Each structure stands twice: as structure tokens, then as C-alpha cells.
Amino acid sequence: MPESIIIQVGQCGNQIGQKFWEKAVTEHASYNKNQIFDESFSTFFRNVDSRNGISNISFEKKEKIVELRGRGILVDMEEGVINQIKNSFVGELFDNNQIISSNSGSGKDKNKNNRNKVLNFLTGNNWAVGYNVYGKEFNDLIIETVRKQTEYCDGLQSFFLISSLGGGTGSGLGSYINELLCTEYPEVFKFSSVIFPAKNDDVITSPYNSVLALNKLINHVDCVLPIENNSLLDIFEKIEKSNPDFSQSSLATNVEELKKNKKLKNFDGMNNIVANLLNNLTSSMRFEGKMNVDINDITTNLVPFPRLKFLLSSMTPLYTLKDVRVAPRSIDQMFLDAFTKETQLIKTDGKSGTYLACALIVRGQGIALSDIRRNIDKISKSLKFVSWNQESWKTG
Ligand SMILES: Nc1nc2c(ncn2[C@@H]2O[C@H](COP(=O)(O)OP(=O)(O)OP(=O)(O)O)[C@@H](O)[C@H]2O)c(=O)[nH]1
Ligand SMILES: [Mg+2]
């Protein structure tokens, strides 16, 4: 299976990352009852036997899982969220050498630690600090940390960066990392999942940070998956209203704290939606299947020109069926739903625009090829495609 390294940067990137890892581990565990380290695990995980000093047990040996490590790198200049991940049930997936925070590399240098604290206090939410100050300061450590993770891979296919655009670290340092990866690993595919700020965002500089980061994204990554906090908030509130069980069942980490902090509660529910999307999007990289499409296939088919790389994504149902009880949806209705604004993760009207191409990824049992064909024929009539690409559907 192709291997992928997830790089999560800043508060938002790490909080979404945490949800992604929780879902991925849970999903693999539910399929892999005999605890053998198999091929599907190897996309995002490696098997380590630290007792015998073996840092990488190949899936070909079909050995039991000893200690799992995620192919992930956690980057944030504040330590709160990283500590929260370390204390969560996915915390053991990450060794200290997979974490880059303000104290990394500064050793016992007290002055530097104090300086970092002051810098954080004065200059949070500032793209330029993330890019220019932290980027330069952590340049070598980032290169070294990424190199170590790439050396554990047999066939590294992609880097997968997750961050917000509105803050300073994820946006600015994330831009710096993407640029660095572009120079150091030109042949490895770079995918970036970014969160756009909501209308009423409390970060006053978020529009500036977003514009600066977008410019870098256009130049340095192969494909971007933009997600808007406004869309996430609307979807979350809709699900919560129709299913009061939702927040209890899917959040569940620290209910008391969540109740105290409504916003954090929303972030958790919102991040859950993004994690589901990423989990589904990467499922065909992880599991065997005759009709699988991986991230490279998607980009080859959906990005006709290097600068037109922003995907409009949509997901239905919007939550895993395990989270809540939902009325069974007919297959055709699900296809129709996927082309409505309510299920889109960015607020735009696709129907009034022109499609360059469209990919449908169907997951689960009970859907036949004929169902997909029938629905594509139906849906095609309501969408406008560019003249030179009328038959532009990719299905998997
Ligand atoms: N969906 C979602 N959005 C978040 C989350 N955390 C922060 N945001 C949004 O991200 C933006 C702020 O970015 P952060 O990720 O907090 O900032 P940062 O990358 O840590 O950078 P600093 O400004 O240096 O702290 C705002 O638009 C927030 O609304 C989260 O967990 N989920
Ligand atoms: Mg932060």
C-alpha cells in the first residue's frame, strides 16, 4: 500500500489530526481482529519493537502488532494541544522525535524558552511570525524530523498537511513547511487540507493570514482540500438539532469541559466531520479494493492545470452511521444529497458554476456499479461541465 506522512500544524491542525488518528486506529482495529500488522496498516502506521531495537517491522512478515507508531509529525508552538494528544488514547502513536514545539531543539536554554513564550504572547495569529520567525528557526529540525519519518517508508507516496488558514502557526509555519517539502521532496505528492475562518471568526487577522497562506498553497502543493468553518458549523448544528445524541456519542472525550466551553464543543463536533472526510478519502489508500482510487488518481483526474487545484468536497451521510441512528437513506437520494449545498464543506453554489471534473467515491456495501452509472447519468444533466471535458467523472 502507498505510504503517507501526516503533518499537522497549529492548534486546528493538531485537533483535527487527533480526531483523524482516533478514527483511523478505531477503524483498522475493527477490521483487524487478529492484531497482525497487515498491509492496510502500513499506509499511516508502522510496527515497532522497541525491546529488540527494531524500528520497523515489515507488514510482509505478518507479525503481531507490537507497538504502533503513526506516520505523523505534530507541530505547534504552543504545547497545550500537543499535550492533550499525548494524553489521549492515540498519544502513544507518537515518539518525542515526531513532535516539534517551541521547546524542541532549545534544550535547556532558558533564555530561548522565555523568548519563545514572549514571542507567542506578542505575536500569535500572525502569518509572518509563523513563516519568517518560526520557519527559519525550526528549519533544520523540520528537515531532520521529516527525513526520519521518510526513512521508515518503503514507498512514500504523499505528504498530507492539515492546518487552519486563519491563525499564525498552522498558516505561516505550515506555508513554510509546504515550501520546504517542495524543495526537499519534489517527487512526493503534497496534499493540503486547510480550514478557512468563519465569518464571525474571533481572530482579527484571519483574513490576512488566509490570503498570505493561499498564495503559498497555489505555488507549493499539488492539491488543496479547502474546508470552511461556516459550513462545518452549519452541518454540526443541523446534525445536533436532528440528533441530540450526536454530541454525546461522537465527542465523549471530556464532557464536563465541553459543556463549560461551548466553542470547544463545537470545534470537537466540527473536527469530527473533517476527520470522517479524511478517513473516507484515504480509505482506498489503506484497504484493498478492485475499484480503488487513491489520492494521486483523484488529483490526476481533477487537477487539469497546476494552479486549479482547489477541490469542492461534499460528503453524505455527514457522519458515520455508528455515531447516530439515522433513517436509512436510499442510494439515489444519497447521490443527490452529495450535490446540494447542505453537504458541501465550502459555501459555494456548484450548480451555478462550471465543473472541470468530478470524482465520486463510494464506500460501503450494497452499492453496485449500475447504481453509480444510473446516478451519474441523472446528475450530469443538472451540472455544467467545461466543453473540453464532458465525460469527466472519476468513480471509485
Ligand atoms: N474547525 C476548526 N477550526 C479551528 C480549530 N482551532 C482553531 N480553529 C480556527 O483556526 C483559526 C485559528 O487558527 P489556530 O489553528 O488556532 O492557530 P495556530 O495555527 O495555532 O496559530 P497561532 O495563531 O500562532 O496560535 C481560526 O479561524 C479558528 O476558528 C479547530 O479545532 N477546528
Ligand atoms: Mg496556536
Automatic annotation (TrEMBL):
SMART domains hit by this protein: Tubulin
Alphabetized UniProt keyword annotations: GTP-binding, Microtubule, Nucleotide-binding
Stored Pfam families: Tubulin, Tubulin_C
UniProt GO MF annotations: GTP binding
InterPro entries: Epsilon_tubulin, Tub_FtsZ_C, Tubulin, Tubulin/FtsZ_2-layer-sand-dom, Tubulin/FtsZ_GTPase_sf, Tubulin_CS, Tubulin_FtsZ_GTPase
Key word GTP-binding present: yes
One BP term from GO: microtubule-based process
Domain Tubulin/FtsZ GTPase, chain residue ranges per copy: 62-289
Family: Belongs to the tubulin family.
Name used for this protein in its record: Tubulin epsilon chain
Gene: TUBE1
